[in-house]
């Protein structure tokens, strides 16, 4: 899917030459730690087929690098610069937690307040969880929801409003224990946005604009795609579609869950944001108000609440940067890597991925915004910069990640090969195609229709205009839906269960590839015929 939040960490091997452009936003010479970085970034863009990126580096409260590389859209020559707008996606979560911190400082709420104290109509699928869910719980991914649960309520862009999304949470099934284990979600940030609106009397967009963007001086940052004027300096997202074709992705608004990932920003503005957090909430000297939030709120946001599992590195070359400690705070990922205390987040939406990476003890902040869905590219650059500031011999991270991408791509191919090998292509559906047609309803998503058109079943998600696909028979009563918008990269198996009398009883879905983003939570749908 075009999930905007923590996109799945797949690494895609890409390989075409990209025209490079862009210039530094400041004329000051780069510090020794950044010598040779331009040539290295050019190699990363070429190797991973990333059309463009913007980079900002803050050290000791000074912006030591702001620069754009490459182009805003493949096939066009408009360059990326430090003022190019990118979708920062899940890096928005830190803005939402900061908005709540500002309200805590103002004594308008507390992290331990129950959600129902502010939103009496709020409900989860379990009465105990509904009663005990706190403001803190909304931010730390331990609610009992499965990974990405409910994401189809807002992505790809849906017709649901933010309040409708939150009200439908009462039907989304829990997969784990409350406050038990980590499972990344986005929908609870929509709840946090509703709390901010109820407590402040302002919309989430107005609140973050007035209380965060303006005091920090983020003049070009937008709370939603709708605020970006036509012809603006904005990057177009890209995905690697079928046959390794780099395809531009239409810009899509995230209207129903802006607090989880709606912000568009620039490297220049994000450098200001990084400075405020590295300065523990202090605003720049020329800003009004002195502080955006108190030191105590900074400590709370950067305190680990939910431990996160640490996976074995995919290869020995990544062992030195494998976290020794990993967890989630309030809108931030907290880790210890290579002896460094790190506060970070990533984001992905509409063909773009990004990272904000803070090393408080070094007073170092790095922002990398890219317009292609390949996290390995920004990781290759990130750790090259860290090498420089730690004054160690630089590792060729680009070569390492490219090699791992080859292995990962092979594993994905193997998975599909297993599906193909298990298929019995000689089977036929149990029913005539017309008897599979109809309207099916899921308790939390709503209606999905199947119509017979020119001898083929067509699937349409009622509230998601981009989810329209054609069903191809796979085997028995399982079909493969191929979405007409191929850039979605989210084809899925559709399996019909029949009653003893030969009528359709239920429909289940499952992503056809392990590379499908977790926000396509097809597996959580419980579709039943509407009679």
Q: What is the top-level CATH class of one domain? A: Mainly Beta
Q: Return the structural class.
A: alpha+beta
Globally, the shape reads globular
Strand order in the largest sheet: 2-1-12-11-10-9-8-7
Could you give a short account of the major beta sheet?
8 strands, antiparallel
Question: How much beta, percentage-wise?
Answer: 15-25%
In terms of quaternary structure, the protein is: single chain
Number of helices: 13
Helix content: 25-40%
Which fold does the CATH topology of one domain refer to? Lipocalin
Q: What low-confidence regions span 5 or more consecutive residues with pLDDT below 50? A: 1-28
Distance between the termini: 30 Å
CATH architecture of one domain: Beta Barrel
Average pLDDT reading: 92
What is the rounded Rg?
23 Å
DSSP strand tally: 20
Describe the 3D structure.
This protein is of the alpha+beta class and 531 residues long. The protein has a domain at 433-529: Lipocalin. 26% of the residues lie in helices and 22% in strands. The protein is built from 13 helices and 20 strands. It has helices at 37-48, 93-105, 115-118, 127-132, 135-139, 162-168, 187-200, 204-216, 258-261, 267-278, 295-301, 375-389, 397-422, and strands at residues 52-59, 62-70, 86-87, 237-241, 245-249, 264-265, 306-307, 325-328, 333-337, 340-349, 352-359, 364-370, 438-442, 446-453, 456-461, 468-475, 478-483, 492-498, 504-511, 528-529. Strands 2-1-12-11-10-9-8-7 form an eight-stranded antiparallel beta sheet, sandwiched between helices. It has an eight-stranded antiparallel beta sheet with strand order 19-18-17-16-15-14-13-20, with no helix packed on it. Helix 1 (37-48) packs antiparallel against helix 12 (375-389), helix 2 (93-105) packs across helix 8 (204-216) and helix 12 runs antiparallel to helix 13. The longest helix is centred in the last third of the chain and has 26 residues, at 397-422. The protein starts with 36 loop residues before the first helix and ends with a strand.
């Amino acid at each position: 899917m075009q999930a905007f939040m923590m996109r799945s960490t797949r690494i895609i091997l890409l390989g075409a030459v990209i025209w490079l452009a862009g210039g530094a936003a400041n004329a000051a010479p780069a510090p020794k730690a950044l010598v040779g970085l331009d040539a290295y970034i050019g190699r990363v863009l070429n190797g991973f087929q990333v059309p463009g990126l913007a980079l900002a580096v803050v050290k000791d409260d000074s912006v030591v690098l702001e620069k754009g590389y490459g182009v805003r859209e493949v096939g066009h020559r408009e360059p990326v610069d430090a003022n190019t707008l990118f979708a920062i996606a899940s890096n928005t979560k830190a803005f939402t937690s900061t908005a709540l911190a500002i309200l805590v400082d103002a004594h308008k709420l507390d992290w331990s307040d129950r959600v129902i104290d502010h939103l009496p109509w709020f409900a989860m699928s379990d009465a105990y969880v509904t009663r005990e869910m706190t403001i803190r719980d909304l931010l730390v991914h331990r609610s009992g929801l499965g990974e990405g649960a409910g994401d189809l309520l807002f992505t790809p862009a849906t017709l649901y409003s933010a309040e409708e999304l939150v009200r439908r949470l009462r039907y989304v099934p829990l997969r784990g224990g409350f406050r038990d284990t980590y499972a990344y979600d986005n929908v609870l940030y929509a709840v946090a946005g509703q709390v901010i609106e109820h407590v402040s009397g302002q919309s989430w967009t107005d609140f973050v604009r007035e209380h965060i963007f303006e005091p920090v001086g983020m003049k070009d940052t937008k709370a939603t795609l709708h605020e970006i004027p036509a012809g603006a300096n904005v990057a177009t997202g890209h995905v690697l579609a079928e046959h390794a074709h780099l395809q531009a992705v239409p810009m899509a608004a995230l209207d129903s869950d802006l607090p989880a990932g709606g912000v568009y920003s620039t490297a220049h503005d994000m450098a200001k944001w990084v400075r405020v957090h590295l300065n523990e909430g202090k605003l720049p000297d020329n800003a009004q108000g002195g502080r955006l939030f108190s030191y105590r709120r900074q400590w709370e946001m950067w305190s680990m609440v939910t431990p996160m599992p640490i996976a074995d590195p995919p290869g020995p070359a990544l062992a030195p940067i494998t976290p020794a400690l990993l967890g989630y705070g309030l809108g931030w990922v907290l880790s210890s890597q290579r002896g460094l205390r790190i506060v970070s987040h990533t984001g992905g939406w509409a063909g773009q991925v990004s990272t904000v990476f803070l090393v408080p003890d070094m007073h170092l902040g790095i922002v990398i915004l890219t317009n292609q869905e390949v996290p390995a590219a920004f990781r290759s650059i990130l750790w090259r910069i860290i090498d420089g500031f730690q004054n160690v011999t630089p590792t060729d991270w680009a070569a390492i990640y490219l090699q791992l991408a080859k292995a990962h791509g092979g594993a994905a191919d193997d998975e599909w090969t297993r599906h193909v090998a298990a298929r019995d292509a000689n089977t036929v559906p149990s029913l005539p195609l017309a008897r599979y047609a109809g309207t099916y309803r899921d308790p939390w998503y709503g209606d999905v229709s199947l119509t017979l058109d020119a001898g083929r079943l067509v699937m349409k998600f009622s509230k998601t205009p981009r989810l329209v696909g054609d069903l191809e028979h796979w085997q028995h009563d399982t079909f493969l839906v191929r979405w007409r918008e191929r850039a979605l990269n989210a084809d899925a198996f559709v399996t019909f269960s029949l009653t003893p009398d030969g009528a359709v009883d239920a429909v289940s879905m499952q992503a056809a590839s392990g590379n499908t983003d977790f926000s396509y939570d097809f597996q959580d749908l419980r579709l039943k015929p509407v009679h």
